[in-house]
Design goal:
Blueprint: H1 11-30, H2 46-64, E1 72-73, E2 82-83
């Protein structure tokens, strides 16, 4: 499929591989200062990170605790609480 008749890789496949290698190297160079800390720190401004970190904590807690609601919490703006319909729950794993 990707082989030319001469047995050599086709030009499109070779160009795609070269582009993939180039972008991978550029990404590694760009993120080199933080690669060692990715598992233990948050990248970005604190006002975004702390909210996102709290949503991840609360969301994972609410998934397993039937007393908590995934879409409403009283932990913010107590005693009325706040709706979490627009919370940025993001679970990648």
């Amino acid at each position: 499929m990707f082989k030319a008749k001469s047995g050599q890789p086709s030009g499109r496949f070779r160009d795609s591989g070269a582009a993939l290698l180039l972008y991978t190297l550029c990404t590694l160079v760009f993120f080199a200062p933080v690669l060692g800390r990715l598992g233990s720190s948050l990248i970005g401004p604190p006002e975004d990170n702390m909210q996102f970190f709290w949503f991840l904590w609360y969301g994972s807690k609410a998934l397993w605790d039937p007393a908590l609601s995934f879409m409403h919490t009283r932990m913010i703006y107590f005693p009325e609480g706040v709706g979490l319909f627009w919370a940025n729950y993001f679970y990648a794993g």
